[in-house]
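Is 5-phosphoarabinonic acid placement plausible here? Inputs below.
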Amino acid sequence: MRTPSAPSPSSLPELTREAIAAVDASGQLSDILGLPDHLRDALWRVESANLEFQDAPGGLVVAGMGGSAIGGELALAVLGDRASRPIVVARDYALPPWITPDATVLCCSYSGDTEETLAAFEAAGVLGARRIVSTTGGALAQMARAERVPVVPLPGGFQPRAAVGYALVVALEVAALAGVGERLLYEIDVAAAHAEELVAQWGPDAPEDSAAKALARDLHGTTPQIAGAGLTAPIAYRWKTQINENAKMPCFATELPELDHNEIVGWESAGELGRFSAVFLDDCDLHPRVRQRIALTRELVAEQAAATALVQSIGSTRTDRLVSLILLGDLVSLYLAALRDVDPATIASIDRLKSSLARL
Ligand code: PA5
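Reply from A.M.:
I modeled the complex. Tokens:
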């Protein structure tokens, strides 16, 4: 169901390279399309950091915020039941109170200047846990150097969220080096090669009715809710954050089967309150009952939604399928920015908040 005031997807401008370049002065599109290279380069960067294997019975903590924290969530999803110990993502100034000194703490901050991550780095030091840092520089690199903590050096010049390939691979490799999960070199290689093909299918030179462009048109003018489950739950969160930051739109992430126990009731009045859309991220490895729930939930929500979509992950391995959906979501968010005529790079509200905090 579409409300009459909705811009019809076919009346929206074409998503050509030229149309995207008109809003994308800093080249966010090419950073998104560079995902296959980022995955491979990240492996090389971890290798060159010469990190030693050190068994961590206490598991792995990935400490970071925003675009730097997501790699931990994605690594946890990729490993699935191949993780032999807990993996926890700590998005705060402190570490969870039950973390023990025999854990490994990976502190990720693209800029190296995020105050929550700096505090978590110090907290891990006080605890006496093994620390590893992943950053381009900033205060975090300085503190790591001063305390002889190894650093995986990230390449500069990206928005933190565009370095998602690096964040994922560094977290996976550190998990293996802590004895928390198996090493996934082959899966990462396959995912990078497959992502190259998907870039051609969904990128700016693909037809206007290709998957990413068509979905962006459907979501334009709506408040999307992205639903995931299992492997796709953190990907739904990634889509939300990319749509928030690149397209400057409200967007929410949710998870099945939980949403069937509460949010589904809220949808009963969605049509009265605004133009909401729902995207369901499916994966062949989800619990069969969850897959049935996705189909039924979509049907119910469609009665009130401006648009709904069911999106399948594509690929042979968990890493491959996760990367396929990351790429698709990143492109959808970039195309939404172009349709909305906004620069995908700017994050004015985050910048304002950080400078207000700095004055306190
Ligand atoms: O995407 C972004 O720019 C943010 O979500 C940042 O990742 C977040 O503010 C943390 O910054 P950093 O990644 O530099 O630690």
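Short version: Residues 65-68, 109-111, 114, 117, 159-161, 245, 347, 350 surround 5-phosphoarabinonic acid (CB under 6 Å).
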